[in-house]
Specification:
Blueprint lengths: L3 H5 L11 H32 L4 E8 L2 H10 L6 H7 L4 E7 L2 H12 L5 E7 L12 E10 L4 E12 H15 L9 H33 L5
Parallel strand pairs: 2-5
Antiparallel strand pairs: 1-2, 3-4, 4-5
Helix pairs in contact: 6-7
Length: about 220
């Protein structure tokens, strides 16, 4: 999080990040995030044991910054308070799963959603249907219970699945497009076209690498580590 002074300067009187209710809610989101991450770590360990290769390259977690929470509530004309965060926001706790291959993503998603304490709230497959920018990823909003001292509480967590290539493109696209004033260029549309073209190249490379892996597995009779 940002320092308290810089964060508090932009937060209206309706919510105070120092208030116990807010701190408690953030703790609960963090617990839910760790709960889902543990499930993914277990799946990665089991699939690594069964198939002799890791389907997950990396798992990244993050809690939404207080400033971003406030801005999203205000942008959507929702009340700015702790109850409104729980009611309206589903991306306070976020997990990004970086996979080796595209088919690993779908296998992990199926395995995660088959667990009886995971409830699917929303699914958006931007791999099958990319965004206009070329962005590819598979997004889930899931609900998972956390077990506190006095209650069992369902919490929402956003989980994004990408290949290494998809994550590479998305990270650089964000830096190039959103961190720079490209709209000030003479022809910003050409930048968007180039980024889309690069996204398509990454997708083709993902597909070809998966084909190479399958050829090796078919020939040698084992999974590639």
């Amino acid at each position: 999080m940002n320092s308290e002074d810089s964060t508090m300067a932009v937060i209206p009187a309706e919510i105070d990040v120092r208030a116990n209710a807010f701190e408690t809610l953030m703790m609960e989101y963090q617990c839910a995030m760790f709960e889902v991450k543990t499930k993914l770590d277990v799946l990665n360990a089991e699939l690594s044991h069964k198939e002799s290769r890791n389907p997950i390259e990396a798992i990244k977690t993050r809690l939404k910054q207080p400033k971003s929470i406030i801005e999203k509530l205000q942008r959507n004309n929702w009340d700015v308070n702790v109850a409104s965060i729980e009611e309206h926001l589903s991306d306070v706790a976020g997990i990004r799963v970086i996979c080796s291959f595209e088919d690993d993503i779908y296998k992990l998603v199926d395995c995660l959603l088959n667990q009886d304490d995971i409830t699917l709230i929303k699914k958006k497959d931007y791999i099958a249907k990319p965004k206009e920018s070329g962005y590819r990823s598979l997004h889930l909003i899931v609900e998972v219970p956390i077990f506190l001292t006095t209650e069992k509480k369902p919490m929402k967590v956003e989980v994004q699945f990408r290949t290494v290539g998809m994550d590479f493109w998305a990270t650089l696209e964000h830096k190039l497009k959103y961190k720079k004033n490209i709209e000030m260029l003479d022809n910003p549309e050409s930048i968007a076209e180039e980024l889309f073209y690069c996204a398509d190249l990454v997708h083709q490379l993902d597909g070809r690498m998966m084909q190479i892996r399958k050829k090796i597995e078919d020939k040698q009779g084992f999974e590639v580590k």
